[in-house]
């Protein structure tokens, strides 16, 4: 029984898979509430699947790229749960989740792009060819990315929706699905990574204020 | 039933703290600090702190359990700082605490950082005196609280209207060419100086100020007065008597702190004062508080310096009290609140 979740998008996505099938799956209704919603959603999905936490045998987590705060909530939850339950934890690039769903549903051909919202008017993206990620993940301005893009290349993910004037109409899923994360991680048809966040950006190297503690 | 075994997580600033207590007994207090990473930026960078918390979290939990000689499954409850503090930093600790509680099937308590600074004293001196006046003094906070029940009833009486006490120590230390953080160096210099050499101002103690700010503090004017005095000395070409300036400054800070804490206790008819936070490590503050309080028949408790700074043990200590007094645990959708008020002890 594999618990899968992704917090790289504004939503929280959680699923339990048994290797073949998705046993239960939920997405948060609210956005930008990863810290509040992830743990209760995990509890709900495990219950939906008719399981208890101790039935879980592995954890798969989307490691981004994505907004840092949500990403950290997912990763620290995955690492801590794996530690408590004494089960392995696998990281999966969140763009790979979108690509897997798009390829499986046949909405893309050999060559396509996955692009998600990186905020600051940029996108996180990766390029696929013949079923494999051949470029990325990287972070870039959509105009710069579009300039190198072969005309007619399908673009999967929310990035296409936000910058459709540059990247064309979105095809396939907008946000990573936990069910697909669970499927591809269980089947090992995706690169399994350490549960380390793909930040792709350095921290803003400026102290927000003088050294100051709450207490 | 034996006393509850509680694991506490603290990530409100740049230190990842994990403490484990059994009732009022401290078993272990583990801290991983990212302070060196921040030093080159000249302050705590929130994003750097958050990244460091993620990396340190599980190893610190693991080390704490190992050193306490317990298995995670022995833990009866998990406590975590829900606020106040740096939002992104708090979130890492809160998410980890939820995962622990969920994985262990044990209750979760999201608690107030400032109340935890008070509760930590029971690890050293046993059950808290209630009611008591708590004075929290540190680099980010100076406040007077009335504590009737550490799990539900903490009310603010006063706070600084400008600089925190610890900030004043740091700024004056810099003026005198002493290293950061200034507190311990001012304390050390003062031991060879005269505390009555210079009559520095006592903020918010005039009759008029007392009407509106009886239990509030102000250290900004004091800091400016020290700066002016030092500048005047330098202009006249005379050497600055560092030890005398340090001792006189320290005396002014401690005088105001102790006076107001005693006034708060007297006005409420409360016979116990508890002092916490980093500045509580100051030797003059401890001595003066005990000396003046004794004359008034008031008892003073100050935890040892290691328990005064931010740590996981203080969170565990407050969590243990929540368990002991049967408080309702927090829900799994507990938010981290960077500006959590002191009146919210348990979320
Ligand atoms: Zn503190």
Summarize the structure.
Chain A is α/β, with parallel strands linked by helices. Chain A contains 7 helices and 10 strands.
Structure description:
The complex is a heterodimer of chains A (215) and B (347). Chain A is an alpha/beta fold. Chain A has seven helices and ten strands. Chain A has a five-stranded mixed sheet with strand order 3-2-1-4-5, sandwiched between helices. In chain A, strands 8-7-6-9-10 form a five-stranded mixed sheet. In chain A, a hairpin with a 2-residue loop joins β7 (123-129) and β8. Chain B is α/β, with parallel strands linked by helices and 347 residues long. Chain B has 13 helices and ten strands. Chain B has a five-stranded mixed sheet with strand order 3-2-1-4-5, sandwiched between helices. In chain B, β4 (77-83), α3 (87-104) and β5 form a beta-alpha-beta unit. In chain B, α4 packs across α13 (312-324). Chain B is globular, with a radius of gyration of 21 Å. The mean pLDDT of chain B is 95. Chains A and B meet through α1 and α2 of A and α2, α3, α4 and α6 of B. The complex binds zinc ion.
Record keyword descriptors for this entry.
heterodimer, A: 215 residues, alpha/beta, Nucleotidyltransferase, domain 5, five-stranded mixed beta sheet, 7 helices, 10 strands, 32% helix, 24% strand, disordered C terminus, B: 347 residues, 13 helices, globular, binds zinc ion
Protein chain pair with the most extensive contact, residues per chain: A-B, 38 and 58 residues
Taken as a percent bin, the fraction of beta residues of chain B is 15-25%
Give the biggest sheet of chain A. 5 strands, mixed
Tally of discrete structural domains of chain A = 2
Q: Tell me the CATH topology of the largest domain in chain A.
A: Nucleotidyltransferase, domain 5
- Could you tell me the number of beta strands of chain B? 10
Spatially, the strands of the biggest sheet of chain A line up as: 3-2-1-4-5
Q: Mean pLDDT across all residues of chain B, rounded?
A: 95
Q: Return the structural class of chain A.
A: alpha/beta
Write out the strand line-up for the largest beta sheet of chain B, numbering strands in chain order: 3-2-1-4-5
Number of helical regions of chain A? 7
| SSE-based structural type of chain B | alpha/beta
Distance between the termini of chain A: 44 Å
Q: Could you say which overall geometry of chain A the principal axes of the C-alpha atoms support?
A: globular
**Helix/strand order of chain B:** EEEHHEHEHHEEEHHHHHEHEHH
**Multimeric state of these chains?**
heterodimer
